[in-house]
Amino acid sequence: MPDAGFETLKALIVEDNSHMRSLLRALLNSIGIKEIAEATNGQAALILLRERKSDLVLTDLAMKPMDGLEFTRHVRNDEHSPNPFVPIIMITGHTEKYRVEAARDAGVTEFLAKPITARNLFARIAEIVERPRAFVRCDSYFGPDRRRHQLDDYAGPWRRKDDFQQEAVVR
Amino acid sequence: MKPSSKKVTEIITPDAYPQMMSKPNAARAAQTLRSPQTAEKAQVAMDAQIPAMRAAILRYVEELEKAQGDMALVFEKAHEIRGFAETAGLITTGRIAEILCRYMDDMERIKGPLDATLVALNVSAIGRAARTEDSDAAMGDVVAAELAALVARRLAEAG
């Protein structure tokens, strides 16, 4: 798969299950991503992120001592985070609505429910490269824009600078 | 209609922060990701993982069966099985593990008491499905449907 642009990318897999790490590595390899680091929990992943550039992170949710939510919050919010904008795909069997919302509010870019398929994983990666989302910074959140859709009849609440016609300052 | 007072949210557009790849590369990469050739190559990569995954699932099943009585461990093992049984082609096994995980998770959330017999039934069904799925998928489907109905009833009673 030459010239697709993946060969130069560096990925990080954060997953405590060795079989799932192996599967994810195989899938990333199949699209040409060769430089892949692995960590078994969020704490180890934060150290790896500081030591080595990563263009894409795939993380599990439930891990010890640091889970994927806390890891994501650190990546997004730590003062010395090496890349607070790095795309993070959370891959988990915990698909209950409140967990999906917690992942979104932690700042994950995409959420992928297990069991994973190549098609679903690649669709998430395609979404990230093709339609990168704006980032939002406010008192209580920093991460990808959580409003996926623009609704013409949206009635509020209005909380953003660009929600205010006179104050629309966008970087 | 947007309001007119000040708020403090900052929007950082994609052009203002580093992207995974340049725009021309991104279009080509997305096309590659959706191509049948990519899907085919990925399937070969996944298929190569299946024997090891199936062996791991059978180990998890044994650990699950030994964990009976320790509900936290039962949940942990069922969750592992749910995670990749279907990817390994064990569809019914994954489905029953999903039923069990949902039941335990929902009960935890509403602080309801777990029905140990129902948990044991699910554990037994997971074990049977994992060991016989290739030869007896139809029976596994019937069992999974029955268990799903039982769990729904217990949750309705508890909720």
Write up this protein.
The complex is a heterodimer of chains A (171) and B (159). With 171 residues, chain A is of the alpha/beta class. Chain A has one domain (10-133): 3-Layer(aba) Sandwich (Rossmann fold). Chain A has helices at 18-30, 42-51, 68-77, 97-106, 118-130; strands at 10-14, 35-39, 56-59, 88-92, 110-113, 135-138, 141-144. In chain A, strands 2-1-3-4-5 form a 5-stranded parallel beta sheet, with helices on both faces. Chain A has a two-stranded antiparallel ribbon with strand order 6-7. In chain A, helix 2 (42-51) packs parallel to helix 3. Chain A is globular and about 45 Å long. Chain B has 159 residues and is an all-alpha fold. Chain B has a single domain (30-158), classed as Four Helix Bundle (Hemerythrin (Met), subunit A) (Up-down Bundle). Chain B is 72% helix and 2% strand. Chain B has helices at residues 23-33, 36-66, 71-84, 91-110, 116-132, 137-158, and one strand spanning 10-12. Chain B is extended. Chain B starts with 9 loop residues before the first strand and ends with a helix. The chains are: A alpha/beta (171), B mainly alpha (159). Strand 6 of chain A pairs antiparallel with strand 1 (10-12) of chain B.
Run of helices and strands of chain A: EHEHEHEHEHEE
Query: How large, in whole angstroms, is the Cα Rg of chain A?
Result: 17 Å
Instruction: Work out the count of structural domains of chain A.
Output: 1
Just give the CATH class of chain A. Alpha Beta
Query: Helix fraction of chain B?
Result: over 70%
What is the succession of H and E elements of chain B? Answer: EHHHHHH
- Largest interface: which pair? A-B, 62 and 57 residues
The top-level CATH class of chain B is: Mainly Alpha
- Per DSSP E runs of 2 or more residues, the count of β-strands of chain A stands at 7
Span from first to last CA of chain A?
Answer: 36 Å
